[in-house]
Amino acid sequence: MNRLEKVLKRPPSTLGAFMRKELHHILRDRQTLAILLLMPLVQVLLFGYALRTDIRDLRVAVVDPTPDVVTLRLRNRLAATSRFHVVKVSSTTNVLPDLFERRKTDVAVVLPTSFAESLTRGDTAQVLVITDASDPNTGTTMQVYVRTVLADFESELGSARGAAGEVHIGVASRMRFNPTLESANLFVPGLIALVLTLVSALMTAISLSREKELGTLEVLLVSPLRPWQIIVGKVIPYLVLGFAITCLVLAAARVVFSVPMNGSLTLLLAESVLFTIVSLALGVLVAARTSSQRAAMLGALVGTMMPTSLLSGMIFPITSMPGWLQPVTTIVPARWFIVIARGIMLKGVGIEYLWRETAILGTMALVLLVAATRSFHARLD
Amino acid sequence: MRVLRFLLRKEYLQIFRDRFMVAQMLLLPCIQLAILANAATFEVKNARLVVVDDDHTSSSRGLIERFTASRRFVLVPRPVSTRGADEAMLRREAGAILRIPTAFERDLVQTRAASVQLVLNAEDGAAAGVTLGYAQRIISDYAGELATTLPGASVSVAAARVAQPTLDVRTRGWYNPELDYRFYMVPGILVQLVTMVGTFLTALNIVREKELGTLEQLNVTPITRAQFIAAKLIPLWSLGLLGLAIGLFVARVAFHVPMRGSVLLMFATASVYLLAALSVGLLVSTMVQTQQQAMFVTFFIVLVYLLMSGLFTPVRSMPVWAQWFAQANPTMHYIEIMRGIMLRGAGLRQIAFHLSVLAVCAVAVFTLSVRQYAKRTA
Amino acid sequence: MTSPRGDRSIEVDGLTRRFGTFTAVDAISFDVREGEVFGFLGANGAGKTTAIRMLIGLLAPTAGTARVAGYDVATQAEMVKQNIGYMSQRFSLYEDLTVRENITLYGGIYGLSDEAIRRRTTELVDRLDLREDVDARVKSIPLGWKQKLAFSVAVLHDPKVVFLDEPTGGVDPITRRQFWELIYANAAAGTTVFVTTHYMDEAEYCDRVSIMVDGRIVALGTPAELKEKYEARTIDDVFVRLARAGTAA
């Protein structure tokens, strides 16, 4: 009762003044602000333009011990494919290790001696396809590409003889929600999560622990502001900043890459505010539990940035992770936010499909806020 | 030299007295390796598949069996209507839908050709592409099997197949025959580690002294710029190598990542790369006033460098302008070197080009940052 | 290289520093004698810190000259640094190092021999009564001691001139008294002491004081001279009068 009266009696401008001070801090530090605005834009551009996994222009080395018309046809066939590019034809496999080690070739096709001869006899000719599998993904993909060309070559040989009997099952495949597998479409929702984590969790953690280190926090604490007001005052400006940056990323993604917005923009923005609150609470929690700026940085990096970029499904699919790691991802807020953001942007679904994820985020926000205010309190006593 | 000795002693004392520094050095490699090596994979296991079988024949069941037997797919147990399948995908309960049309078997027998429809949830793009690859392989293998087992496959056809010239294509993946994705990621993660230690710690270390006022105190003493920079960089440089050693140890013990080349060469190149990384940190420290700014600027730089380095996505898949950028990126060259040494057993001759680019970068950034560092303001 | 002329340890002539269009220090001129305790007073933002930063070689002057211990601050900054000690308003010893480690570090930086470092450490620790804490981290010793320690480290290498930028901020009166005793002891031994302070009672301890307002030196003399000239009872009154006049103008 007494408390409530005190709160009510306090001029309402106290909190406002405090928030203004915090906003000034943010706006005055041009360097940090510039980076906060620039970083998401650069990331959108990089993720959209530069980071692709499709493989074009494969360098092929052909080992052809007995060159003749047939092997030439095969080589031409490889060269004719827009994807391949024959960099070396050799009569021996001895050159291969060096070619691979110096990264001059990606694939080697090794033909047997008397390749044409065995084909004319109707024998089976063994062809060896060697790929640089140090990157297993591209390694496998390259194998598939070479196999396809070889299969075409084989059927060409076969049809030339008029033999049939193959069974063919066609696959009509469709990539739903992102037909062209546009990487911008995939990364933008994750990017929003990453940037929001950066702005809210990392910035709050550092700025709060900085005030702690410099002793200015003590000054605030002896002021008539209550702990929750200090937290709110600290947090609201970052919430605003986070919101602005979300809009910026969405606009950039839309203008530059025409990333779709199939669902409700309002719902997406509301969900990102919810996610920002979760991140902010995490940031406050990290700051309350650490004693120096550097500790807060380390805590925020390991505790928020790393999980957000690696364990959220942003880049690497969660279903691909080992069994013990998948449950760990459920405590990463970004994981749920990314499901929501992709659902709204790519699938165009509404809250009726996303209420579960929203509820999880809401619960996280509540628990973390209470924990943050508590631990903040405890530190001060 | 005598002055340098005193300064170095001070730096080492401070580093090893700092609990967080030590924790960072020991924990970060372990956490990063554990998480990244396990999480950073596009390989798809247990893709959740909904089958809509409108054919209900032995052929269609055979195809479904091949999918479940592959272990790449698990069936979502409610293969109902088309609408039910769509709903499952919207709810993220299914990652793929396989639809086998009526008359699948009839078409196969009559025309020896049929088609099925595969819908993939491309929300997680990378996974969808990989899943499609698996599915196509399973389906074409099944087609190959049917050629001989399908009712109506006459003996003559089978005989004709024998007489037909065929290619027996064998594939072999060099340097990583088991196609273990972790082997590929671990060298990159070690690079990331060395980069973070080098740039972050350097920038933060110097800016911290700026913030505390001790840097100003040092600046009014007669120590020279060279002494100061050497005293800052040598300890962090050794710390970077220590981090690499710890990371390498964890990678060997926990992940059995091969080490086909020379460890000595690896540390020698790391030394060169660290010079570049440390210089970037030094450069950042001259531009900023607070640790917070140092943190953000370094974070930004390191992020761009890592993304453009081929750590996560192949450099050769990038557009041309980005490839040019990557060529000027020391991190890219260092990743190439690390993967070369660890996976391919590359020697000095094979990495000579990358190493020389690295050395040029290192000297250039170092010169620039030393010039930028001034004991006084003009 | 020029040798020190006469007994002037600091000679400042028309020293000016501009930041863009703002003139922080506006053509100040003064001399400080060897062994003198010189008080450099001024309100916050009057340009004191900028002036000190030029004198200790951290900031290049825009115009004018200044010689410290006989060396030009613009062209011989490194020689200046050999001959001065500096203690800033921020506590600037390493808190995560022990008392002994801090002394050793600065001793080493100024080129003292191992033997000299050992001897001076013992002396210093005895004088400050820090024997028990010599191997404790600086972080853990009380603020007053830290300040005295910082001063002792600043004069470890027997500099010709020592610059003290608000050295007694936040320290209790007794410790301040002890601090000034340290200053006098060093001045008596021939060290010139250049000190800025906010405490006007401390200004009374100085041989001479200057008062800076808006980048200019508006008064300079012994405390007694100034009080007489401005018909004030204390330096505090002098300061308030001058500072107010400056703001009004």
- Secondary structural class of chain B: alpha/beta
Mean pLDDT of chain B: 82
Number of helices of chain A: 15
* Major beta sheet summary of chain A: 4 strands, mixed
Radius of gyration of chain B over all CA atoms, rounded: 29 Å
Instruction: Describe the strand arrangement of the main beta sheet of chain A, using strand numbers.
Output: 2-1-3-4
Query: What is the ordering of alpha helices and beta strands of chain A?
Result: HHHEHEHEHEHEHHHHHHHH
The proportion of residues in beta strands of chain A is 5-15%
User: Could you give a short account of the major beta sheet of chain B?
Assistant: 4 strands, mixed
Q: What is the radius of gyration of chain A?
A: 29 Å
N- and C-termini, Cα separation of chain A? 22 Å
How far is it from the N-terminal to the C-terminal residue of chain B, by CA? 28 Å
General shape of chain B = elongated
Low-confidence stretches of chain A: 160-164
Q: Give, in order, the helices and strands of chain B.
A: HHEHEHEHEHHEHHHHHHHH
Characterize the overall form of chain A. elongated
Biggest sheet strand order of chain B reads: 2-1-3-4
**What's the pLDDT, averaged over the residues of chain A?**
79
State the total count of DSSP E strands of chain A.
5
